[in-house]
């Protein structure tokens, strides 16, 4: 009896399709069987279809499953859809899960959605959501000002005070998204220190009670609308700088001196101009006098012609002129002799 062969019952192309499908199924199972078993034995099961779907969506399957296992072992339950959605949004699933675990162990209320929001908010910066949670658990210390420098301020007596502060802060997770960063805290603390020192009546008061600066600055609520809560402000170092008041007074005195010298120079120039003007007027008057004297002989000649002046009158006039010249000459000689005796 002749039995039909497999090729006669099922076409060859169908057999080839079955073989190809079987190989694909085997390869897929071989790829995900380890992850599926690891999730199953860790009490964080993930269906094979879900693993394949994540793979097709180009989501790192192992990272999602391992993060879910980590959360499950810490007593937190998150679905693969939640973790996958955060990854596709550009977040760091591993840091977010670790941050949630740390917050849960520290009994800090931190919902999953807020943790994801914080993680996305710090994306592209040097900070992470895990660091934010750790800072909330273990407060950080910020140096004011940064870079190891000091804040320069001037008391009311004109003495410069140089101070350096250390600010202890912890993260405020409720305001971390949209809140001001450390730079704002540093700027506000610097401003508060300058204001406190500037309001002190004497630099001695600052040196005697530097804690007054901390109290005044801390009482201003500088952490409003920031991502941090200020726990304490401690003045780490206080030095006496220059006498700014004396320097300013010296500069003002020099400026006043320059102004006075400029005004004196203006007055001197005005006096010189006036002197030159008077000299010019004197020369002008002398010229007029000479001109008037030149008219005298003409007037005498005219008087002769008109018969108003006789010869004897002219002789008397000349005698008077000669007598006047002689007296002036004698007076000049006497004055010169007195000056020689004085010398």
Supply database-style keywords.
343 residues, alpha+beta, Tetrahydropterin Synthase, Chain A, 4-stranded antiparallel β-sheet, 13 helices, elongated
Question: Tally the helices: what do you get?
Answer: 13
Low-confidence stretches: none
Radius of gyration: 53 Å
Helical fraction equals 55-70%
Description:
By secondary structure, the chain is α+β, with helices and mostly antiparallel strands. Among the domains are: 9-137, no CATH class; 140-243, Tetrahydropterin Synthase, Chain A, CATH 3.30.479. 65% of the residues lie in helices and 11% in strands. The chain has helices spanning 6-9, 12-41, 48-56, 61-73, 80-88, 93-105, 112-121, 129-137, 182-199, 203-208, 211-218, 244-306, 311-342; strands at 140-144, 151-154, 159-171, 228-243. The termini are far apart. The model has no long low-confidence stretch (mean pLDDT 81).
Short recap of the structure:
The protein has 343 residues and is α+β, with helices and mostly antiparallel strands. The chain is built from 13 helices and 4 strands.
Please give the structural blueprint:
Layout: H1 6-9, H2 12-41, H3 48-56, H4 61-73, H5 80-88, H6 93-105, H7 112-121, H8 129-137, E1 140-144, E2 151-154, E3 159-171, H9 182-199, H10 203-208, H11 211-218, E4 228-243, H12 244-306, H13 311-342
Antiparallel strand pairs: 1-3, 2-3, 3-4
Helix pairs in contact: 4-6, 6-7, 6-8, 9-11
């Amino acid at each position: 009896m002749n039995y039909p062969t497999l090729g006669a019952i099922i076409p060859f192309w169908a057999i080839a399709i079955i073989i190809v499908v079987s190989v694909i199924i085997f390869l897929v199972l071989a790829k995900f069987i380890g992850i599926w078993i690891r999730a199953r034995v860790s009490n964080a099961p993930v269906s094979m279809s879900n693993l394949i779907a994540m793979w097709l969506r180009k989501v790192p399957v192992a990272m999602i499953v391992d993060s879910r296992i980590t959360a499950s072992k810490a007593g937190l339950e998150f679905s693969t859809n939640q973790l996958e959605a955060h990854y596709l949004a550009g977040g760091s699933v591993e840091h977010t899960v670790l941050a949630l675990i740390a917050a849960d162990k520290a009994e800090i209320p931190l919902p999953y959605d807020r943790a994801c929001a914080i993680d996305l908010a710090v994306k592209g910066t040097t900070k992470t959501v895990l660091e934010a949670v750790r800072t909330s658990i273990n407060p950080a210390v910020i140096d004011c000002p940064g870079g190891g420098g000091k804040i320069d301020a001037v008391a009311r007596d004109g003495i410069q005070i140089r101070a350096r502060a250390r600010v202890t802060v912890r993260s405020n997770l409720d305001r971390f998204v949209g809140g001001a960063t450390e730079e704002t805290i540093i700027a506000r603390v610097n401003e508060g220190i300058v204001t406190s020192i500037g309001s002190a009546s004497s630099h001695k008061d600052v040196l005697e009670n530097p804690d007054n600066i901390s109290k005044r600055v801390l009482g201003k609520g500088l952490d409003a609308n920031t991502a941090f809560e200020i726990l304490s402000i401690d003045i780490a170092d206080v030095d006496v700088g220059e006498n700014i008041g004396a320097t300013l007074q010296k500069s003002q005195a020099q400026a006043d001196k320059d102004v006075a010298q400029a005004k004196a120079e203006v007055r001197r120039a005005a006096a010189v101009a006036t002197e030159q003007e008077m000299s010019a007027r004197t020369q002008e008057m002398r010229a007029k006098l000479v001109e008037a004297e030149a008219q005298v002989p003409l007037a005498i000649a005219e008087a002769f012609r008109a018969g108003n002046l006789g010869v004897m009158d002219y002789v008397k006039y000349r005698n008077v002129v000669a007598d006047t010249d002689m007296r002036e000459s004698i007076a000049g000689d006497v004055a010169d002799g007195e000056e020689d005796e004085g010398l």
